[in-house]
């Protein structure tokens, strides 16, 4: 469902860059201009193939040469050969320092932490608030926005499972990550004192991160809403006198609320990792720290997960995260029409983050090995690691 604040034009909803050449959006024109020269270079590295974009992986079985490595990396990320349009954008294209002119979608109301993350990732971008996580995915897919910045995990609350499921359902690519230190504040309408508050309203994760502090302040009840800034907006609009909001200091400024307490999170080391999404992947590199995110499924049987992990351990590739999610039939069919593995109750998909670039032949060979016994494998993105201060 699309947020009222984000209306996707009818023309955008039906646009298909692969078939609609009469009036493509400006992004497509730029993409074609950039890709034309790159395709002529890439074409000499390897012959064209007829692999469908839905094919999850296509890798060499032996140590590749430099040119073969680049071609294999391209095919793995795109699912098609270098000559197939549209060509990929470069790392510089997708990770501009300022993001000037980019429209970046995020979930929540203005003042949400996701908006702050979008501004940190692309300081000069134009932010597009979306009511739901899926709306942000749709905004990028339908050319309403150029990027999306969405939370993936929190150091206290753990993973945002909904976004893992949406990564599989939609065909966007992770092109970067950004870490944001979360500093919660207790907000209330002007003149309201802490002792007047009986309830705290916020996103469930924010409430969980401040549970002990709120209890010490004598606030007994909790009210969960879709996002932190939305809670601040609601208590301001309804002029609630007995309810406070757990949100950011920016939300207090935007909605005219008082800050009754700052840094109320139970653990001061509270960091959320956000993923940066785009319609096309970036070309991976090896001259800086990169991370690669994949999702795969395995046959039942003893030692299957051990074999999958050994693929990386034997090549000394470090795993920074592993997440399992229920094996849902519909999203998997969307992700890979060729997947024919039978689906049973309590089958799981495994989401894994690797400290490796897909430009590295070692990582390519690891995934080639994994593909030999995995029933499904898809690369979600290969992108620079965020090494900045949260």
TrEMBL record:
<keyword id="KW-0456">Lyase</keyword>
<keyword id="KW-0150">Chloroplast</keyword>
<feature type="domain" description="ACT">
    <location>
        <begin position="293"/>
        <end position="384"/>
    </location>
</feature>
<dbReference type="GO" id="GO:0004664">
    <property type="term" value="F:prephenate dehydratase activity"/>
</dbReference>
<dbReference type="Pfam" id="PF00800">
    <property type="entry name" value="PDT"/>
</dbReference>
<keyword id="KW-0028">Amino-acid biosynthesis</keyword>
<keyword id="KW-0934">Plastid</keyword>
<dbReference type="GO" id="GO:0047769">
    <property type="term" value="F:arogenate dehydratase activity"/>
</dbReference>
<comment type="pathway">
    <text>Amino-acid biosynthesis; L-phenylalanine biosynthesis; L-phenylalanine from L-arogenate: step 1/1.</text>
</comment>
<dbReference type="InterPro" id="IPR002912">
    <property type="entry name" value="ACT_dom"/>
</dbReference>
<protein>
    <recommendedName>
        <fullName>Arogenate dehydratase</fullName>
        <ecNumber>4.2.1.91</ecNumber>
    </recommendedName>
</protein>
<feature type="region of interest" description="Disordered">
    <location>
        <begin position="32"/>
        <end position="66"/>
    </location>
</feature>
<keyword id="KW-0809">Transit peptide</keyword>
<dbReference type="InterPro" id="IPR045865">
    <property type="entry name" value="ACT-like_dom_sf"/>
</dbReference>
<keyword id="KW-0584">Phenylalanine biosynthesis</keyword>
<dbReference type="GO" id="GO:0009570">
    <property type="term" value="C:chloroplast stroma"/>
</dbReference>
<dbReference type="InterPro" id="IPR018528">
    <property type="entry name" value="Preph_deHydtase_CS"/>
</dbReference>
<dbReference type="InterPro" id="IPR001086">
    <property type="entry name" value="Preph_deHydtase"/>
</dbReference>
<feature type="domain" description="Prephenate dehydratase">
    <location>
        <begin position="103"/>
        <end position="279"/>
    </location>
</feature>
<keyword id="KW-0057">Aromatic amino acid biosynthesis</keyword>
<dbReference type="GO" id="GO:0009094">
    <property type="term" value="P:L-phenylalanine biosynthetic process"/>
</dbReference>
<comment type="function">
    <text>Converts the prephenate produced from the shikimate-chorismate pathway into phenylalanine.</text>
</comment>
């Amino acid at each position: 469902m699309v947020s009222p604040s984000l209306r996707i034009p009818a023309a955008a909803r039906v646009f298909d860059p692969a078939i609609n050449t009469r009036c493509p959006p400006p992004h497509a024109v730029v993409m074609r201009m950039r890709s034309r020269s790159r395709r002529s270079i890439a074409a000499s590295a390897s012959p064209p193939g007829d692999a469908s974009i839905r094919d999850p992986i296509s890798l060499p079985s032996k140590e590749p040469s430099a040119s073969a490595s680049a071609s294999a990396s391209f095919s793995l990320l795109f699912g098609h050969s270098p000559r197939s349009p549209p060509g990929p954008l470069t790392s510089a294209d997708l990770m501009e320092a300022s993001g000037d002119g980019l429209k970046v979608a995020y979930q929540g109301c203005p003042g949400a932490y996701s908006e702050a993350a979008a501004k940190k990732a692309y300081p000069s971008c134009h932010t597009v608030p979306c009511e739901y996580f899926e709306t942000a995915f749709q905004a990028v897919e339908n050319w309403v926005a150029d990027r999306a910045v969405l939370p993936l995990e929190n150091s206290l609350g753990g993973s945002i499972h909904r976004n893992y499921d949406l990564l599989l359902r939609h065909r966007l690519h992770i092109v970067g990550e950004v870490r944001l230190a979360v500093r919660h504040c207790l907000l209330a309408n002007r003149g309201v004192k802490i002792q007047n508050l009986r309830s705290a309203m916020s996103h469930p994760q924010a409430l969980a991160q401040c549970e002990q502090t709120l209890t010490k302040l004598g606030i007994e009840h909790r009210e969960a809403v879709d996002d932190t800034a939305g809670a601040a907006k609601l208590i301001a609009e309804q002029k609630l006198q007995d309810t406070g909001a757990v949100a950011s200091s920016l939300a207090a400024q935007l909605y005219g609320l008082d800050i009754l307490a700052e840094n109320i999170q139970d653990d001061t080391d509270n960091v959320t990792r956000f993923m940066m999404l785009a319609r096309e992947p970036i070309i991976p590199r090896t001259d800086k720290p990169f991370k690669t995110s994949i999702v795969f499924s395995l046959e039942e049987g003893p030692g299957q997960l051990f074999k999958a992990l050994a693929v990386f351990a034997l090549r000394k590739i470090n795993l920074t995260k592993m997440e399992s999610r229920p094996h849902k039939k519909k999203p998997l069919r969307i992700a890979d029409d060729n997947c024919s593995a039978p689906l049973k109750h309590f089958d799981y998909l495994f989401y894994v983050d690797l400290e490796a670039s897909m430009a590295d032949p070692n990582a390519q060979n690891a995934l080639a090995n994994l593909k030999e016994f995995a029933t499904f494998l898809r690369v979600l993105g290969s992108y620079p690691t965020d090494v900045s201060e949260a």
